[in-house]
UniProtKB/TrEMBL annotation:
Protein family: Belongs to the membrane fusion protein (MFP) (TC 8.A.1) family.
Protein name: Cobalt-zinc-cadmium efflux system membrane fusion protein
A molecular function (GO) term: transmembrane transporter activity
Species of provenance: Rufibacter quisquiliarum
UniProt-listed NCBIfam families: RND_mfp
Taxonomic placement: Bacteria, Pseudomonadati, Bacteroidota, Cytophagia, Cytophagales
Length: 370
């Protein structure tokens, strides 16, 4: 009887012990998911390669797509008109040529040149007389023979005569008028010949109001973009703009909106905005079609990080959150949108947390391999 009782009791104890140790062993096991989230410790080499940036709350920027054309900077456009009528002896340039300031554009023979020589002589004589009258008035004022008003009047006459003499001097300089009946049309500024309305052996009438040439410097250029009525509130002066063209589809030209023309075209229902661009290599030409992207702020704030801090894997976006060298966490984030160099997130990270923004893929791969 004793053996019958002892055997079941021993079996129960052994079974209980087995269950206990099995439970203890199961409790001490680390789940596979927890092993996957084990903290990553960066190597010395990887620590030196990476760069960190902090997540921050900021206004969300969006983009507005516009179309437009390249145009000349009107402040750097020079229209050259004939001084007098006459016969065009020769034309030295062609449309599209680059010319230096003072370069000869055309030579014109005219019988009217003699009149300009007379005007120049008359202007110089008038200046000499006005200068002499001013000196006399000053001497007489010292003796009390004339008033200060008389001196001021003489000075005004001298200034007027001086301005006219200077004007004639500039005319002779621009057109290189010398003795004889020929004058030379010269470029008033360096730039490209963007318009040419004259050929050799043409007869120019004195009442002709058509310019001979148009010269423009193209080291700065305008982009005239069309904004639809529904998008007018989204554009303001100073907003950043990115411009691409059909000729250079892979090249992005960056500038800013520097003027808004607050007038709607009645037919297209669009408003013009102007973007100024540097054009040092003259790659942008007038009348080129352009696509313009304008960045504008939305009325919302989201968490922002550098766009290159994102790692895209299996249809999900991840960042590597860095707390210290041996505490780097792989974390999934929800992307709202990417704008330029900035990614806006709706969840997954808090303000002030640091993310790996340089070589995040190396760190991500290291975390997957651990």
């Amino acid at each position: 009887m004793k053996n019958k009782i002892t055997t079941p009791l021993l079996f129960s104890l052994l079974t209980g012990c087995t269950f206990f140790f099995a439970c203890s062993e199961e409790k001490n096991q680390i789940p596979s998911a927890a092993l996957a989230d084990k903290e990553l410790c960066l190597t010395d080499t990887l620590s030196q390669l990476i760069k960190l940036d902090s997540a921050r709350m900021q206004n969300v920027n969006n983009q507005l797509q516009l179309v437009g054309k390249i145009a000349l900077d009107e402040k750097k456009v020079f229209k050259i008109f004939p001084l007098v009528g006459g016969h065009v002896q020769s034309v030295k340039v062609e449309l599209g040529d680059y010319v230096q300031k003072g370069q000869t554009l055309a030579v014109i023979r005219s019988s009217e040149i003699a009149e300009f020589e007379q005007q120049r002589i008359a202007a110089q004589s008038a200046l000499q007389v006005a200068q002499k009258n001013l000196e006399v008035a000053k001497d007489m004022a010292k003796s009390g023979l004339v008033s200060e008003q008389d001196v001021l009047a003489a000075q005004r006459e001298r200034d007027i005569a001086q301005a006219e003499a200077q004007r004639m001097k500039q005319v002779f300089s621009i057109y290189s008028i010398g003795k004889g009946s020929e004058y030379v049309v010269k470029a008033p500024s360096a730039g490209f010949v963007v318009e040419k309305n004259v050929n050799a052996d043409m007869q120019i009438r004195s009442d002709n109001d058509t310019n001979l040439f148009t010269i423009s410097s193209m080291n700065e250029i305008w982009v005239m973009a069309n904004v639809f009525e529904s998008d007018i509130a989204k554009v303001k002066e100073g907003y950043a703009a990115e411009v691409t063209t059909l000729s250079y589809p892979d090249k992005v030209f960056r500038g800013k909106i520097d003027k808004i023309f607050n007038v709607l075209d009645p037919e297209s229902r669009t408003m013009k905005v102007r973007v100024r661009l540097d054009n040092p290599d003259f790659s942008l030409k007038p009348e080129m079609f352009a696509n313009i992207r304008i960045e504008y702020p939305e009325d919302k704030q989201l968490m922002a990080i550098p766009a290159h801090a994102l790692v895209f894997d299996q249809s999900k976006n991840y960042v590597m959150v860095y707390r210290k060298r041996c505490d780097v966490e792989q974390r999934e984030v929800k992307l709202y949108q990417t704008m330029g160099q900035t990614a806006y997130l709706t969840s997954g990270i808090e303000a002030g947390e640091q993310v790996v923004s340089k070589y995040p893929l190396l760190v991500y791969n290291a975390s997957k391999a651990k």
